Amino acid sequence: MAIEIVNESGAEVDEESLLALSRSVLESLHVHPGAELSVVCVDEAAMEQLHLEWMDLPDATDVMSFPMDELRPGTAEDPGPEGLLGDVVICPQVAAVQAARGGHSAADEVLLLLVHGVLHLLGFDHEEPEEKDEMFALQRQLLSDFLGRPAPDPTEA
Questions:
Q1: Signal peptide span per the entry (predicted)?
Q2: Cα 122 to chain center, whole Å?
């Protein structure tokens, strides 16, 4: 898998953990090994601009996902097609505020947001209660498996 991690946020981010978690999630969901993912950490001003431009909403948000080839999870027997998964954009500064509110570390919040963003790239959503239950349960499971301990509950994602 081609995974690019870029930190333009000015905040300290554990890029190695982001890379390892990205691989773990994509492998767990049987995404084609040739899939490509980009993870970009940006500051609040850049996230606010993206949020306004793409969602027509003010203020910086925690995570945004920009799918490319609409890839979906596969199975061990059929990992699905190769392609560009898309971009996950995370704002560590917003994540730090949410982490404090949720009572866990900013690093855990950034990891949680990464999983959340990747799931959105793979077609998961949380508009309806059933979808939210499914997505958030999978999100917790994937992050818990990676961390080797219970994952924090999302505060805003």
A1: none
A2: 10
* Lowest-pLDDT choice from 23-27, 51-55, 90-94, 151-155: 151-155
Q: CA 63, 89, 149, 104: dihedral to nearest 10 degrees?
A: -50
Q: In what order do the strands lie in the sheet with 84-90?
A: 2-7, 36-41, 84-90, 63-67
Q: What is the DSSP letter of 30?
A: T
Structure tokens at 104: 């866990």
**Cα–Cα distance for residue pair 41/64, rounded to 1 Å:** 10
Per residue in 11-66, pLDDT tens? 999 999 999 999 999 999 999 999 999 999 999 999 999 999 999 999 999 999 99
Whole-structure pTM over 0.90, yes or no?
yes
68-90: b or e for each residue (b if 16 or more CB lie within 10 Å)?
eeebebbeeeebbeeebbbbbbb
Token pair listed for 101: 């509110």
